[in-house]
Design goal:
It contains seven helices and ten strands. It has one domain: PPM-type phosphatase domain (Phosphatase 2c, domain 1, 4-Layer Sandwich). The strands form two sheets. Strands 1-10-9-6-7 form a five-stranded antiparallel sheet. A five-stranded antiparallel sheet has the order 2-3-4-5-8, with helices on one face. The N and C termini lie close together (5 Å). By secondary structure, it is of the alpha+beta class. The structure holds zinc ion.
Length: 268
């Protein structure tokens, strides 16, 4: 497997996405927004995703390890790196996880929350994703989307949403993300696809996939053409060009004008 990667922050703040590619693995993590609220952690989201990603790559070096077991192990390792922080704080740093792994003649995948893996097959595209996060708190989400970005009303609505999300995150009635408790790994969606059915694959944070799913400004076929011709960097720059036409989120209501974006493009 050949993996090409890139990641870019969506604005002036530090990048909270993380991406890695090895000859057998493609990993994308998307750190969840803290909306400036307390996290109980002095390290921050960029530190969290960098350490979780590194631990995942180490845990999955043995291709026989099940992906969810590798994720559980990596979560424990990262929690052990900062015992002085309040890991029970509901705002503890957290992230979505998307992993694609080549093993023998198969491709294993794991998704936890909404960073999708898109497989280009001989008969079209398959999107592997976990949209449970979209099903909770619809009223508060709608409230955020009523306001243009950069307004006080938008910022306050986002804080209300994030505060409420923290109460439902990693609970049986809510949605699951990687955070301080290894139990989340058992709730990831996993599966295996025969390699012969897949021509290429893209592992994306939603900051990149939104070009298709939110903005509707490209098809998956066009995304894969861009990836083949210009690589991950070109795909992220096309997302930014689209966002620049709607800087305050009037046409496409969203949490920020540009979200951090991460891309791993896998070819054989
Ligand atoms: Zn910490």
């Amino acid at each position: 497997m050949r993996v090409a990667i890139d990641t870019q922050p969506g604005g002036a703040d530090p990048n909270e996405d993380w991406v890695a590619g090895t000859p057998t693995l493609a990993v994308v993590l998307d750190g969840l927004s803290t909306a400036g609220l307390d996290t109980g952690c002095r390290h921050g989201v960029p530190w969290y995703v960098a350490n979780l990603g590194s631990q995942l790559v180490a845990a999955l070096a043995d291709v026989r390890a099940p992906l969810s077991a590798g994720l559980a192990y990596a979560l424990e390792q990262v929690a052990a790196l900062h015992p002085e922080c309040d890991l029970r704080n509901p705002g503890t740093p957290s992230a979505t996880v998307a992993i694609l792994r080549e093993r023998d003649d198969s491709l294993d995948h794991l998704v936890l929350a909404d960073s999708p893996i898109v497989l280009e097959g001989t008969n079209g595209f398959t999107v592997l994703t976990d949209l449970r996060v979209d099903k909770v708190l619809p009223e508060l989400r709608a409230e955020v989307e009523q306001h243009e970005t950069h307004t006080t009303e938008h910022r306050e609505a986002l804080r209300r949403l994030v505060t409420a999300q923290r109460q439902t995150r990693n609970t049986p009635t809510g949605y699951w993300v990687a955070a301080s408790d290894a139990e989340a790994a058992a709730h990831a969606l996993v599966g295996t696809t025969p390699s012969r059915d897949v021509r290429a694959a893209a592992v994306l944070s939603d900051g990149a996939s939104r070009l298709v799913t939110e903005y509707g400004m490209a098809t998956w076929s066009e995304v894969f053409s861009t990836l083949r011709n210009g690589g991950p960097q070109e795909l992220i720059s096309s997302v930014r060009k689209v966002e620049a036409t709607d800087p305050t989120g009037r046409r496409w209501p969203r949490y920020k004008s540009g979200d951090d974006a991460a891309v791993a493009f896998c070819q054989w």
